[in-house]
Design brief:
Length: 302
C-alpha cells in the first residue's frame, strides 16, 4: 500500500450512495480501459462499484473493447445526483453526482475539489490506474496489463505524442513485447493507419466526400498511411481517373496523410486525367487546409 492508494481506498469506502466509475462522453479506449482497471481495484478492496457511461463509445473503443471481451454498450446507463463518482480520463462531472475521486492525465489550472485528485502528465489514464493497482499490492493479470499498453499506444499516436514521458515509451514497448501483443496493429491503430493490404479500389475511395464549389462537383478521398508506394499510388490515381469521368466531377482531390512523418501529399485529378501534386511538410487537414484552398481556386477560376 502507498499513501495515495490508502487515500483512494478511503475515498471509495466513505462514499455515500452508489459508487459509479465513469469516463468522459464518447469514451475512447483509455477512458473505458481505465474504468475496467479501476473497477478491478475496487473489487480487490471489496468495494462495490459499477461502470456507467452515458454516451456511446467511439468506434475504435467499441471494436477494441470487444477484442478484449467487453461490450461497451453494456455499460450505458444513467448517473443520478445521489451517485458518488470516480472520474477516469476527465476531471469535470458531466452529468451530476458528487465526485469522490479523479484519475486523469489532462493537466488543468483548475483542478476539481474532491477527496482524491490525481492529475498527472501520463500518456494514459489507464496506465495511472495500473500503477495504482500495483501500489495497492495487486498483481495485474495479463488482460489488465494488455489493456494498459493498448490504451497507451492509442492515446499517444503510438507512443509518438510529445506529451508521453520517455520512461512510458520504454515501458510501453517492453510490455507490448513481453505480452506478445501485435505491435504492428498497435502502431497502425495508434496512428489511425490504414491496412494497406486492402485492394487499391477500396483505398482509393476512403473518406469519400462530395463538395460543390462554384456550382461544380468536387470529390475527395484520402488514406492515412506511412506505407504508400509509387506503384500503389499510380494504381489509385488510375482508378480515380476513371471514377472522375463516371462521377462527371470537375476535380478529384486525393490526399495521403502520413502521421509518422507528419506530412501530407495532395493529388488534384482533373477530368482530362492530368494530376497536380501538392506537398505539405505538415499534417494538413482536409477541412481546414486543403478544401478551402481548392474552393478558393475554383471560385477564382469561374
Ligand atoms: Mn486519455
Amino acid at each position: 500500500m502507498s499513501e495515495r492508494t490508502d487515500r483512494l481506498r478511503a475515498a471509495l469506502e466513505q462514499a455515500a450512495g452508489r459508487v459509479v466509475i465513469t469516463g468522459h462522453d464518447a469514451p475512447d479506449v483509455d477512458s473505458l480501459a481505465g474504468c475496467v482497471l479501476m473497477r478491478a481495484l475496487a473489487d480487490f478492496w471489496g468495494i462495490a462499484a459499477q461502470i456507467v457511461t452515458m454516451t456511446r463509445a467511439d468506434e475504435q473503443a467499441m471494436d477494441v473493447m470487444a477484442k478484449f471481451g467487453f461490450d461497451a454498450e453494456g455499460w450505458r446507463g444513467e448517473i443520478d445526483e445521489s451517485d458518488s463518482l470516480v472520474l477516469i480520463d476527465h476531471h469535470q462531472p458531466l452529468h451530476g453526482g458528487s465526485v469522490v475521486a479523479v484519475i486523469d492525465h489532462h493537466p488543468t489550472a483548475c483542478p476539481p475539489n474532491a477527496q482524491y485528485v490525481q492529475i498527472e502528465g501520463s500518456g494514459a489514464s489507464t496506465l495511472m490506474v495500473l500503477n495504482l493497482m500495483k501500489e495497492a499490492g495487486m498483481q495485474p493479470d495479463t488482460k489488465q496489463r494488455a489493456l494498459a499498453v493498448t490504451a497507451l499506444y492509442l492515446d499517444t499516436i503510438a507512443l509518438r505524442s510529445a506529451k508521453i514521458p520517455p520512461e512510458e515509451v520504454v515501458w510501453g514497448r517492453q510490455e507490448a513485447r513481453a505480452l506478445g501483443l501485435d505491435e504492428n496493429w498497435l502502431e497502425r491503430e495508434g496512428m489511425g493507419l490504414e491496412d494497406m493490404t486492402r485492394p487499391a479500389h477500396e483505398l482509393a475511395m476512403l473518406g469519400r466526400k462530395v463538395y460543390t464549389f462554384a456550382g461544380r462537383r468536387v470529390l475527395s478521398t484520402y488514406v492515412q498511411t506511412d506505407a504508400m508506394t509509387e506503384e500503389l499510388l499510380a494504381q489509385i490515381l488510375d482508378i480515380l481517373k476513371e471514377e472522375i469521368a463516371r462521377e462527371q466531377a470537375a476535380l478529384w482531390v486525393f490526399i495521403v496523410q502520413d502521421p509518422a512523418k507528419g506530412r501530407t501529399s495532395e493529388y488534384d485529378i482533373a477530368p482530362d486525367g492530368t494530376v497536380r501534386e501538392i506537398a505539405y511538410d505538415f499534417l494538413a487537414s482536409r477541412g481546414k487546409n486543403v478544401m478551402p484552398r481548392v474552393e478558393r481556386e475554383m471560385m477564382e477560376g469561374v
